[in-house]
Amino acid sequence: MNNPQPVAAETSAEIGNPLLPLLHQQQAAFLNNGAPDYKQRIEALNKLKKAIGEYKEEIVAAVQEDFGYRSDTETWITEVVTVLNEIMATKSHLKKWMKPSNPGRSLSAGMAKSRVIYQPKGVVGIMGAWNYPVLLVLSPLIGVIAAGNSAVIKPSDLTPKTGEVVKKMIANTFDESYISVVTGDVEVAANFTQLPFDHIVYTGSTHVGKIVMRAAAENLTPVTLELGGKSPTIINPNYPISKAVDRIMMGKFMNSGQTCIAPDYILVHESKVDELVSTFKEKLTKRYPSVENNKDISWIVNDRHFVRVSNLIKDAEERGATVVQVNPTNATISEGTRIIPPTLLLNVDTDSNIMHEEIFGPVLPIITYRDIDQAIRFVNERPRPLALYYFDNNKKQADKVLSRTISGGACVNETMLHFANEKMAFGGVGPSGLGSYHGQAGFLEFSHKKSVIFQGALSPAPLMNRAYPPFVVKVLKVVSNILS
Ligand code: NAD
Question: Is 260 an annotated catalytic residue?
Answer without folding.
Answer: yes
